[in-house]
Amino acid sequence: MSGHSKWSTIKRQKGVTDAKRSNVFTKLAKIITVASRTGHGLDIAIEQAKKANMPHDNIDRAIARGKGELGGAQIEEEIYEAYLSLRSSEGTKGDGPSGVAIMIRTLTDNKNRTVSEIRAVLNKFSGSLASTGAVSYLFEQKGIIEILADKIPLPKEDAEMIIIDSGADDFVEDGNNIYVYTPPKKLEEIKESLEFKAIPVESAKIEQTPKTYANIAEEKKEAVIKLLEALEDLDDVSEVFTNADL
Questions:
Q1: What is the pLDDT of residues 151-186, one digit of tens each?
Q2: 6-66: which CATH architecture?
């Protein structure tokens, strides 16, 4: 299932979702601030914040900060590349260094602090920062819309036809979840088209999706998951992507 967000599935299964994290409002505020400044993805960011029950005052402040009305250091997006060295009797397979490539998306007003915190987490779990381009070639940017099949008030065939006609690149089913892949620039347009035609959208975001997956020995999977969780717990980290087949 090329491009399928397996790490996102693992997070749902373990209950490690943004909505349950203590720093969720901090992360959402940064996303809204950047979207407000750039003019890209603001509606989706606000919708995500509302689903997490973020107070309206917090949303308004984040928007105002993005517009430069509140002052303070500017929040910038920065993406870091990393890899995890794994060795076992079974070995690892994959195109990236040691088989496991990681992309770390951050939103920060202090890059020195951010990279220091990321490096500390990686060192703890035997991971390393990589130079720019060292692992990014293993990923491609896509818009991903998540839909819950049991919330669609239409026959399955009708829903699939609507998705196909929406301009999406592709879609896959994984249990009750349907993932619709879009060109990044058409994410909001396609989301609105689906909702207009009675297909409720659970989430919509732009992700770095793996082109292929690295096979991980079963006894090593929990270590990889703990590293990904530790990275996502950092306030400056908005999302983590990996090619690990978990």
A1: 999 999 999 999 999 999 999 998 888 999 999 999
A2: Orthogonal Bundle (1.10)
Cα–Cα distance for residue pair 210/246, rounded to 1 Å? 13
Which comes out higher in pLDDT, residue 116 or 20?
116
What whole-number distance in Å separates Cα of residue 130 and Cα of residue 151? 41
pLDDT more than 70, % of the chain: 86
Q: Which of 84, 120, 129 is nearest to 230 (CA)?
A: 120
> What are the tens digits of pLDDT across the range 124-153?
998 999 999 999 999 999 999 999 999 999
* CA–CA gap between residue 211 and residue 95 (Å, rounded): 10
Tokens coding 198 = 């009675």
Average pLDDT over residues 83-87: 77
Taking a C-beta distance cutoff of 8 angstroms, is the pair 21, 11 a contact? no
Return d(Cα 10, Cα 56) in angstroms, integer: 30
Which residues of the chain are in CATH 3.30.70.980 domains?
Answer: 76-138+213-245, 139-209
Structure tokens at 157: 């065939």
In this structure, the strands spanning 214-215 and 244-245 are: parallel
Domain 76-138+213-245 has CATH 3.30.70.980: yes
Which CATH code fits 139-209? 3.30.70.980
The values of phi and psi at residue 184, to 5°, are -50, -40
| Gap between the Cα atoms of 240 and 106, Å rounded | 9
Largest interatomic CA distance in the chain: 57
Tell me what pLDDT residue 97 has.
41
